[in-house]
## 1
Amino acid sequence: MRHRFDRENCSVARALEVIGDWWTLLVVREAMLGTRRFADFAAELPIARNILARRLNHLVRRGVLARVNAGTHGTRYEYELTSMGKDLATVMTALRQWGDRWVFGEGHEPVLVRDRRTGRPVPRLRILDESGAPISGRDLEVLPGPGAGKRTIARYRRAARPTSS
Amino acid sequence: MRHRFDRENCSVARALEVIGDWWTLLVVREAMLGTRRFADFAAELPIARNILARRLNHLVRRGVLARVNAGTHGTRYEYELTSMGKDLATVMTALRQWGDRWVFGEGHEPVLVRDRRTGRPVPRLRILDESGAPISGRDLEVLPGPGAGKRTIARYRRAARPTSS
DNA sequence: CAATCTGGTTGCTTCATGCAACCATATTCG
DNA sequence: CGAATATGGTTGCATGAAGCAACCAGATTG
């Protein structure tokens, strides 16, 4: 059976357990673009309908989407992003910018995201310190956090290796 | 057969084609923590060895990792991040912070990433404009970019919908 | 130069994904 | 109101991806 990251003590792994399945992040992307109904997701994405149903259910169960009743004469569902889902905007932006840069290349971006107020494109996300200055990769230090388990602690004791730049 | 995003005109989809497979991003995470050799990846991650081999090859072919010869009496390989790979730090940080916040919750982070110079944790990534002020989700506007195909353009003409907050 | 370690590959099994057909309920139209 | 159609799925089957264990060639060590 495919390995699950459900019990893994790592935020990246656990995040992937929620949004790491094939198609899942594209479903979220559609939701961010305003898609709300099953048929519209199915029309925008070349995804199999049974898989779409599974992904939507999964995202609802995990709290990324909410299923709201939109029927007038009975029940008819729509899907909307929760706060948890909207908060994926940062992940989505990071991923889009990485793809823009390394897959398509500057000047060949398929979509442009800009600030409606100024009309200027959204600048690249950067890892900044509290004063707003960039932190270089070499200055990033990884160590066990308050929720670390024994295994994590052992591992970081074993490896006082620098993260790559 | 599983659908491929190879020809999709969307940076998110194309980025997922590179790093979206099950396990792939955790392999990259290990590389960022300093792991370089097959056996060490295998020891840190509960991944099947044939899948690990496949992932490493895929990442090398796509330019995220480089395979360098580290043998003294013959060929022995190590894997190191390329610039393309190192640039995934932003994606990784966004994903880790999202998992920290929504899966583990504040104060229960399994690992802490901090600025070596100050000892302070890395603040949350934010979508900022050029002057450093946060851009609200409501102010993000999505439109076809210079590399947009006909389908993308038609789609955005059809849908002048706001992105969610 | 024999023993062992490294870095995989191969074969088999099980699960995830894709495709097409089907179906119950909601909605619309005459 | 009743018939026609659209919506939002589910089910069954085929194929490919991931897990497991055994195996193997070349590199390294004693």
## 2
Amino acid sequence: METVNIKKLAQLLNLSIATVSKALRDSYDISKETKEKVVALANELNYQPNPHASSLRKHKSKTIAVIIPEIANNYFTLAINGIETVAQEKGYHVLIYITHEDFKKEVSLAKELYNGRVDGLLISVSSTTTDYAHLHHLQQKGLPIVFFDRVCDEFETAKVTTDDYESSYLATRHLVEQGCKKIAHLAISGSLSIGNKRMKGYQQAVADFHLPASQSLIVECMNDDEKDRELIKEMFLKEKPDGVFAAVERYAMASYDVCRQLGLQIPNDVKVISFSNLPIASFLNPSLSTITQPAFDIGKEAATRLLNTLEKKNAPLTNESIIFRSSLIQRTSTSK
Amino acid sequence: METVNIKKLAQLLNLSIATVSKALRDSYDISKETKEKVVALANELNYQPNPHASSLRKHKSKTIAVIIPEIANNYFTLAINGIETVAQEKGYHVLIYITHEDFKKEVSLAKELYNGRVDGLLISVSSTTTDYAHLHHLQQKGLPIVFFDRVCDEFETAKVTTDDYESSYLATRHLVEQGCKKIAHLAISGSLSIGNKRMKGYQQAVADFHLPASQSLIVECMNDDEKDRELIKEMFLKEKPDGVFAAVERYAMASYDVCRQLGLQIPNDVKVISFSNLPIASFLNPSLSTITQPAFDIGKEAATRLLNTLEKKNAPLTNESIIFRSSLIQRTSTSK
DNA sequence: ATGAAAGCGCTAACAC
DNA sequence: GTGTTAGCGCTTTCAT
């Protein structure tokens, strides 16, 4: 693996290392001809600067980390797509880390970033995360962090989300409008920002429309398909709701499964609406009414915010919430 | 951002930099007590070694790159999951690059890896890639490459795939068994290994079962949903097939859409089977018969192969194909 | 058992 | 306009 580095270029061109370095970075005090010679040879030999050397020297890695709870999930997949698009455009590299909703993993992954491996972090926290010391520590060390989707308000930084409260309210109201009298909520961890907001939106609508507000209409789902189906089934049997609002796609699919098991017809016996970014929601049986988030744009926005502050030092991340609107798309699962 | 490095540890402990370094790496010629003191302080101060410094010094980055054509795709999503699992287990970091099926992007991304940024590469090539010079160049430079899914046979290395030919043959035969007399194939780029094999499997079955083998029963889809639907629609109108074998999930969904437009009933008017890793294929309307690949395991295997050779130098990647079996899952879309 | 010193490849003062 | 030099933080001979 004969490696071509600046030194070799300098030797071949009878120039100093410094001159070559400057020529490659298009510095003002190098003559045009020299620059051309250098660039020509660099191209010819397929020279690529060693990123570790320059990262070490400049304390910048042109790399960002993305920490997400899971990846087999349309939302995160789209968000990554947005993030990667921006990163590629601006010449950044992206490291992916998956916590699998495991707090301990999140902590140990964060530790790996204490040392300049990356210039910034995009994170959507795990559902089991309640203590944010690991992230505070990173921020204190000067690492810019942008939260997306599952944010944490106690951080002074940018947070990119959707209008979870409003959308949940609307989703619940939609079920009411379609004739539901008893609406259940399949909730995601209440310690999560989105879990909390989606719950609140649901509860407010329940209150406003004078629906039964029994605690047992609320199923706090876990991260285990089997168990979740069990819990949902129990709730169905006990409460016999005529409407279900699922906080995430997975729970909606679990409901479909449970309904099938119990011989319940959607939407006749029970109507279902869910947060979901499934591209083929319309091909489901029945097609699923969804609250769809602009996940790609969210990823793009979060990445753009982060990279902008990385590029110009004098634009530190301020404490702001960027809120995208989701859209409620009515399909058969909530038909009258 | 007061950074804690080896030098600082050494100062605080009244030891030399070298001793601290060795102590941290648990070297044999450091006394137990010294080691303990060093480790204790390192933990206390949350010391993390600077990865750029050690990468530069050791010519190893403990990082691998994953290049994939797209990410909004259940197959790749699962594969990444597998890759990430193995990487995390072995203390490797994973950089994600998406080519969006663009050859030029693939080339320029590959160039970024010429310089030691990563220790190895996992790749599934873009559908527009026909020239592999960029990858050969990397391999010549000594970078281990493992292919998965969309492989390239001309490389002397490990390739992890599924039994595409056999599965395609079986899928087509399945349609025949379900009564189809005229089967269309929605093909993915023939320059792709998988495109080629899936086509061959289809063609062999068509021949074996004496089905019409018109070229116009084969739709070579592009990478544009709109166009693909147009092409598929034309084919449907012209050929009126009673069976469709889709090489990838996206084309199956396009068929669902076209059938809906044309008022064709699946499976009565036309039966559909497809390669697909959609976790909720059974909730589609109608539920979709699929050839499902063990994508997670494929990712795991590819990563394991790569990391094994990275860990022990004397195990270079040999020219072998690791072939996983896919499973044909019959559902309503191919019912009699 | 510990330390001194060289150097990985690059950048950025600072000279000339 | 070009070259010299001193590190970035770490690993690794080689001395002691």
